[in-house]
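Sequence and structure are kept together here, with a separate record for every protein. A complete record is shown below as an example:
=====
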Amino acid sequence: MIDRRLLFLSAAGLGGLFAFRWLRGDTAQAAQGAKSKFEVEMTEAEWRTKLSPAQFNVLRKHGTERPFTSPLNEEKRKGTFACAGCDLPLFASETKFDSGTGWPSFYQPLPNAIGTTEDRSLMMLRTEVHCSRCGGHQGHVFDDGPKPTGLRYCINGVALSFKPAAASAS
């Protein structure tokens, strides 16, 4: 007859091994991302000087701003949303939509504007979105967005700046 303690300890050991391997995948991914070379690179001190504390937390430390706090949630003008770290245009205003999540959401980035990495934080698998020029963390992409792509790029407003379109001459 199988001893219940032995069975429990075996299950706990396997669960621990699974958790270790899961988290190790995140660490390996982070280390791989740290080795990436971007067109715009700065030291941590330089980034801290350039960015506000909230921007630094999101863009460089992969933080998340509180939902419904970004003024960009209400931005309805035509223009471009750019990376707050390096000013690379990331999203056209025409692709912005109200997802109800509390963060600016878009269904499509501009060509070659973003990169993605696997994010295993919080014990779940997500796709992280970062600026392709400076590597700054923007947010995550999910497959529950509107047509035509079906994607929802859920972006931290503090990681963006908005550039209104130039007024057309009449």
Observations:
- The CA atoms of residues 41 and 134 lie 6 Å apart.
- The chain has one domain: 36-164.
- The beta strands are 79-83, 89-92, 96-97, 105-106, 114-119, 126-131, 137-142, 152-155, 160-164.
